[in-house]
Amino acid sequence: MATATVQPVLTQFEKYDSEDQIILNNITKRMKRDAKAFSLTDTTNKITLTFHDVEFVRTETLKVIRLTCSKVFKIEINLKKKTVKFYIHKKNASSSSVGSKTSSILPTNKDVDKVATKWLNDKTCIREEDRKLVHEVVKTIVKWTWGQIACELAVEEAGDDYNFTVENIRKVTYNQCEQLWNLQSDNISSIRLHMGKNKATFKVTRTLTRPSKRRRIEKLEDVE
User: Fold this and answer.
1) Tell me, what CATH number does 39's domain have?
2) What is the pTM of this model?
3) Phi and psi for 57 in degrees, rounded to 5?
4) Which residues are CB-contacts of 20 (< 8 A; sequence separation ≥ 6)?
5) Which of 56, 72, 97 lies at the terminal end of a domain, its last residue?
6) How far apart, in whole angstroms, are the C-alpha atoms of residue 134 and residue 136?
7) Could you report the per-residue pLDDT of 191-211, keeping only the tens digit for each?
8) What is the pLDDT of residues 27-49, one digit of tens each?
9) Looking at the domain assignment, is residue 139 inside a domain?
10) What is the DSSP letter of 81?
11) Is residue 69 part of a domain?
12) What residue ranges in 31-181 does DSSP mark as E strands?
């Protein structure tokens, strides 16, 4: 697997179909400022474009890539290795034959609910009116890390916000981040993935507090 310095040119992609070249080049142009190098691997049906030594993960950039490149079917962020992988359907590939392997260890809803409930029962700083939303947030984080090394989830109250820290998180997908935002998008913001530190942080605003316009913008701010 060859590794090349990130350059906004098509030279490294010449062996691919012209449509795939455009997608690869567009992704590389958007990611080059935050990654020191990239590498390519491919099979009959898919291309894996991996960026190495990534210092920052900009969620807004990832969102644009997903919206503009329909062939990108998965984005995987490895905080421990400081890599971001883009899995791309090749031109004319059958979507049913392309995919990445999923973990064979899948939690049941009952398992997830049990873990989240136990964690929440120990937290006196969570106000009663916020417990339903926080419970869903914790369930989402449990699903993120199920089958991996157990994560450490901490929370502290800060005015109208709850500041969450997730330690020992090794990798997460863009879709998983979206699941967190989509729980209640106006109340979840400032998601940061700390590359090389195995840590994620984010804010949850109290459910009875009306988020400001600035807070809604912060939801997709640059992360580090």
Assistant:
1) 3.30.980
2) 0.78
3) -115, 115
4) 13, 47, 71, 88, 90, 91
5) 97
6) 5
7) 889 999 999 999 999 877 554
8) 999 998 889 899 999 998 999 99
9) yes
10) T
11) yes
12) 37-42, 46-52, 57-58, 72-78, 83-89, 152-158, 161-167, 171-173
Contact criterion met (CB below 8 Å) for 143 and 177: no
Q: Which residues have C-beta within 8 Å of that of residue 121, sequence separation ≥ 6?
A: none
How many folded domains does the chain comprise?
2
Structure tokens at 194: 């700390």
Nearest 5°: CA angle at 218, between 68 and 32? 45
> What backbone phi and psi angles, to 5 degrees, belong to 181?
-60, -40
d(CA 162, CA 60): 23
Residue 199 contacts residue 165 (beta carbons within 8 Å) = yes
Say which CATH number the domain at 214 has: 3.30.565
* Helices assigned H by DSSP within 69-212: 109-121, 131-145, 174-183
pLDDT score, position 213: 44
Identity of the residue numbered 36? K
pLDDT above 90 (res 9): no
CA atoms within 13 A on the CB side of 16: 28
Read off the tokens for 35.
């990654």
- Rounded to 5 degrees, φ, ψ at 209 are -100, 125
d(CA 188, CA 97): 35
Residues 208 and 116 in one domain: yes
What is the residue range of 116's domain?
109-223
User: pLDDT value at position 181?
Assistant: 83
What's the angle, vertex CA 117, arms to CA 111 and CA 123, rounded to 5?
145
